[in-house]
Design brief:
The chain contains three helices and no strands.
Length: about 150
């Protein structure tokens, strides 16, 4: 009887000791798994912030380039206007050039195209006579054996 008691008691004590040691290790190092998750979270946060900074930088650069483009457009238009003032030979030519330079693009009215009223709707089949079978006929394309 002592042997069976020892045979059961030794594994039971080992199990209790393993649970106690596991509990102590878990209490002493509770941040082992969360620290890895926290590290991943911090890394993702840094990547997100870097991406946001890159987007802001991109749009600031785009805004500056558009501003430069607009200024260049105004400079070219002013240059052409001064050239028209200096180089045009008569007043009529000068006025026409200046009017063209300062005209608004939307001010130019264009004529709208309208489709003809007597136009026949296109057909999706070739015209044929009534006694000729159409492409959807069962016998279309088959040679008559009789």
């Amino acid at each position: 009887m002592e042997q069976t008691l020892t045979a059961w008691l030794l594994p039971a004590l080992t199990l209790v000791a393993g649970i106690a040691i596991g509990f102590l290790i878990a209490r002493l190092a509770p941040n082992a798994a969360p620290s890895r998750t926290q590290r991943q979270l911090d890394e993702m946060q840094e990547r997100f912030e870097a991406y946001q900074n890159e987007v802001v930088t991109h749009f600031n650069t785009t805004a500056n380039l558009v501003k430069k483009l607009t200024q260049s457009y105004h400079d070219v238009q002013e240059h052409l206007s001064h050239g028209a003032d200096r180089l045009a030979l008569d007043e009529v030519t000068r006025q026409r050039l200046l009017a063209t330079l300062h005209a608004e693009p939307s001010a130019d009215k264009r004529e709208r195209l309208t489709p003809p009223r007597d136009m026949e709707i296109p057909k999706d089949y070739a015209p044929k006579s009534d006694d000729v079978p159409g492409m959807l006929d069962e016998g279309y394309g088959l040679k008559n054996r009789y």
